[in-house]
Amino acid sequence: MKSRSTNRSGIVMRRKVTPAGDIIVTLLTPQGKIKAVARGGVRGQQASRLNLFHHVGVQLYQTPQADLATVQQSILEGALPRLSEPERHPYAHLLSELADALFQEGEFSEQAFDLYAGSLRGVSRHPDPEWVALVMSYKLLALAGFAPRTRHCARCGAADPSHPDPLGGQLLCGACSNQPPHPPERLEFLREVPRRSVRALMDAPLMAEQRPAVWRSLERFVTVQIGSVQSWRSLVGGDVVGA
Ligand SMILES: [Zn+2]
């Protein structure tokens, strides 16, 4: 008979404690996204290991009756302690929530894991974590097959639009928009972000005052195309972005 125990190594992208003291975690692994439960986890050693953004190795047990696999054992493989800093934590949270919304259970994607892991490392180390989060959000979207239309007006199809699209987060032509056009550097970023390498994008950051409009476009695009990303909303509406 085939063993129902499997070993996986991945990053905790979501964590929830139930009233019964179980910890339900969602891990992104190179083999795909996994949701599992550590029964009674908050009272044991699992509690400190199965923390948000930790890279953990887990032994999972799946029974046919249960819809969630059980975490039998876990070990900490890596942690990024700087992600708990207040200027970094919201961005790590946002990227995790976005990655969770973009990648489905059962989808095998080593690339998604590498990109998500790289984005957390960037947010933890880089002096400009907001820029890392903006660039990597677009890269995660592009990997999942979502890229805002920028060559043609999202409403009428006219070529080379340069105005914001306040509803859909794409671009509108002057005739379809009642807002002033994006300034040239912001427009260039919005057009080129799917094609340029992460390195090239990191080397040419937008000035801080240009970013709130990019966040708003991204928030609209994600909400319309994928669904609401909660931490995103609080970030865009709150005082972290553009502070
Ligand atoms: Zn138009």
From TrEMBL:
Primary gene name: recO
Domain DNA replication/recombination mediator RecO N-terminal: 5-75
Pfam families: RecO_C, RecO_N
Residues of the signal peptide: none
Function: Involved in DNA repair and RecF pathway recombination.
Organism encoding this protein: Deinococcus psychrotolerans
Gene3D superfamilies given in the database record: Nucleic acid-binding proteins, Recombination protein O, C-terminal domain, Recombination protein O, zinc-binding domain
Lipoprotein as UniProt keyword: no
UniProt record similarity statement: Belongs to the RecO family.
Stretches of the chain forming a coiled coil according to its record: none
DNA damage is among the record's keywords: yes
Top-level taxonomic group: Bacteria
Protein name from the UniProt record: DNA repair protein RecO
GO cellular component entries: bacterial nucleoid
Keywords: DNA damage, DNA recombination, DNA repair
Gene Ontology BP, a term: DNA recombination
Alphabetized InterPro entries for the sequence: ARFGAP/RecO, DNA_rep/recomb_RecO_N, NA-bd_OB-fold, RecO, RecO_C
